[in-house]
Amino acid sequence: MLQITSGKNGGALITIEAGFPDTLDLWLEGYFRFEVTTAISSQRVQRRDLGLFLDFMQAEEGSLTREAWTPRLSQAFLSWLRGFTREDGRRRWGDKTINRITAHLKTFARWIDRFKPFPLGEPTAKLGTLPVGTGLEVDRALTPSERRRLLDAADQLPLIGGRSRDRGRFGSHQVRPVRKTYRPWRNRAIIYTLIETGMRRGAVANLKLADMKFESRLLPVAEKGGYTHAYKVSRQGVEAIRDYLEKERSDDDAHWQSAALFLPARSVASASGCLSARTISSIWSEVCAVAHVEGKSPHAARHAMGKHIIEKTGNIAAVQRQLGHKNAVYSMQYARISEKELETVLDER
């Protein structure tokens, strides 16, 4: 008989009588009786998650004996979760759900191993979690329409950007002057760089003029994590950067003498010779307002690039190469169909 009782100091004591079936379903009952203290609603989720594993193990091994739970079985279960799809081809469990199931499984396995070690070691010790974002995925990417409107708005900056907001001083019929700190060609080039490379805003701020390879259309930059990645950029992106270099950068460079590609205006006293990621976001927000694009961050351009490459090539490796993902799992998200796209496909019959 399996008995788990409370010890003198609140801990658990376990007794397993000879001949008693050492099975995981019985361990599960003891686990919820003596160990789990979460709310009833949370316990239901835990039971459901652990029940998935027990069902899988029963189907694979034909048994729920504790000794049959091995590290390889745990890996097989994780692979099954990742590969299980619905009739429409979509995955049954998303990455966040799989991570939750994995966490519940690891806690359960560690608890059992504390009382009676597994023959081949704690079976979930080497299970990792899947890297996931904040729920962004492909649904938060710029749409083709938003991309077009943003680039059109960026092209208007040299004509309409940076005008004084002092309507009292300048009448409604007067053309208001451009602020001294405003750099329309720089801002235009930054928008093109974000959209035409898929670069992170921090990487845009880190770009160095001397590193640019315009002939081969490569923009090498120090990424987060300290490694250097070279982004390929479209011809339009290169032209926008060259426009900035020819029309605007030299005046500011005479003051700052900075290695950065994109420079602050020389009249900005608080600047340090290079732009911050926050400034990149402010420029993006300004252009979004002109383009009437709402709810999209600079990172939406990165997602749009990943999605564009998948749609044109169907090649995960191409996404990984352009966006510099060290883990291909990040690149694989762009192969997933969005809810809106799925609805469109289903309606086009």
From TrEMBL:
One of its GO terms (molecular function) is DNA binding. Keywords: DNA recombination, DNA-binding, Plasmid. One of its GO terms (biological process) is DNA integration. This is Tyr recombinase domain-containing protein. InterPro entries: DNA_brk_join_enz, Integrase-like_cat_sf, Integrase_catalytic, Integrase_recombinase_N, Tyrosine_recombinase_XerCD. Belongs to the 'phage' integrase family. Transmembrane segments: none annotated. Residues 137-347 form the Tyr recombinase domain. The keyword Coiled coil does not apply.
